[in-house]
Amino acid sequence: MAYRKTPAELRRLDAVREHLVARATSVVAEVGWAQTSVTAVADSAGIAAGSVYQHFPSKAALAVEVFRRAAGREVDVLGEVLHAPGDPVARLSRGVEVFARRALENRGLAYALLVAPAEPAVGAERLAFRRRYRALFAEVVREGTAAGLLPEQDGEVTAAALTGAIGEVLVDPLDPLGSPDQAATDVLVGELTAMALRCAGAAPAT
């Protein structure tokens, strides 16, 4: 008869796996994908490197899990903002602001999620999540158009432009080697949200 793990063992394994993902996320935020090794993650987690492979078959599998968890949180937060009640143009502006500020508050991880060189498996996940961001932006742009607050346009095209532009604008400010400056951050976020509204064709603020 095959051995079956007890509920207590399963809970312990789940806890170790969660701990590994959390420590791996911290390592990636600190040194990037290229410098994140199984040994570095194991050392951060306080376990032997071989124990990591009891939970993840490869470094790539662990990296993909880290990316999915971290990027998934950001997509969920953006979705909550863009799906909130009220004026779709205001929600679009707020969504861009929240996304940018969250990225700039955790620059190492945001840089890894958006642009840092990564192995192909992580690159494929990055493309998949860009599509999710685009879908969220496209939905709110279509709402704004339907409400007469934005000019007629292809919401998918505008959303693709927004997704690419936001990422590109944030590349240099997210450089983990830079030093944060609150005043500069506020100016950057203001410029970024204004750009997003211009891209969608919103009327200038008075």
Write up what this structure looks like:
The chain has 206 residues and is an all-alpha fold. It is 74% helix and 0% strand. The protein has helices at 7-35, 38-45, 49-52, 59-82, 88-105, 107-114, 120-146, 155-170, 182-200. Helix 4 runs parallel beside helix 7 (120-146), helix 5 (88-105) packs antiparallel against helix 7 and helix 5 (88-105) runs antiparallel to helix 9 (182-200). The protein is elongated, with a radius of gyration of 20 Å. The N and C termini lie far apart (74 Å). The relative contact order is 0.12.
Describe the structure concisely:
With 206 residues, the protein is an all-alpha fold.
Runs with pLDDT <50, length 5+? none
Strand content: under 5%
Distance between the termini: 74 Å
Number of helices: 9
Rg over alpha carbons: 20 Å
Give me the strand/helix succession.
HHHHHHHHH
| Structural class by secondary-structure content | mainly alpha
- How helix-rich are the residues, as a percent range? over 70%
| Overall spatial form | elongated
Query: How many strand units?
Result: 0
* Largest sheet descriptor: none
The overall pLDDT average reads 93
